[in-house]
Amino acid sequence: MASTKVELNCEMTCGRCREKIENTLKDVSGLKVNSIDVANQRVLLEMADTCVATIMDIQNQIENRTGIKTVVKGVGDQFTGVSEIFGPSNLVGVVRMAQIPMNKCFVDGIVDNVNLSRNDSHCSLNIHEYGDLRGEKFEFVGPIRQSIIDNVKPVQGRCTFRCYVNDCNLVDMIGRSMVLTEQETNNHLGAGIMARSSPIFGNVKKVCECSGKTLWDEREERQKK
């Protein structure tokens, strides 16, 4: 059974915080809490391929149920990447990828405010050749370089992605565009650049050297935009 490790930074201050997080996550199917380090404000999770929740679901669940600010610090223990998707009508989302053995990639993400032109339409998510996001319909991204997933039906405007992709070299995807497309019309709904991100234990920063803001402060500011 495949699994992927996820590192979270949670603004914990005591043992009671640890108990709150343990109680919040204990019933999430396919999710294992490997460790909770209050002193370093770190939570290490392991998501089986049968896990019913996305990383963002888990992050939001901790914050909403415990009030503890939480940020995703690292995913996987090899090469990892992330793309912040944006598009018209406030379409916005985050998709993360992590290289795993046998030249496979773990994919996890959510895109909100997805508006399709037809009720029977579906979405596909792919990485395209070029990282050129010019144009209202992202017409300069070029052909598909790496197929990720097809036939995703938005639920209340939200597309959820959680899958494993075969024959995927994530190193080769960095700098290219990740594009959300309406399959039936081939319209590009949103896009973002695939950028390198940190694996677990790959980023020790908690305070930005430039702004002096904590990771949790930065996340709160992004949510308000």
What does it look like?
The chain is mainly β and 225 residues long. The protein is built from 3 helices and 13 strands. A 5-stranded antiparallel beta sheet has the order 10-7-6-5-13, with no helix packed on it. Strands 2-3-1-4 form a 4-stranded antiparallel beta sheet. The chain has a 4-stranded antiparallel beta sheet with strand order 9-8-11-12, with no helix packed on it. A hairpin with a 4-residue loop joins strand 11 (177-182) and strand 12. Helix 1 (15-25) packs across helix 2 (55-66). The longest helix has 12 residues, at 55-66. The termini are far apart.
Q: How far apart are the termini? A: 39 Å
Q: Please bin the fraction of helical residues.
A: 10-25%
Indicate the structural class.
Answer: mainly beta
Strand order of the largest sheet: 10-7-6-5-13
Specify the number of helices: 3
Largest sheet: 5 strands, antiparallel
Question: Could you state the order of secondary-structure elements as H and E?
Answer: EHEEHEEEEEEEEEEH
Low-confidence stretches: none
* β-strand number: 13
Overall average pLDDT: 90
Q: Given the C-alpha coordinates, what overall shape results?
A: globular
Roughly what fraction of the amino acids lie in strands?
Answer: 35-45%
Gyration radius, to the nearest Å? 18 Å
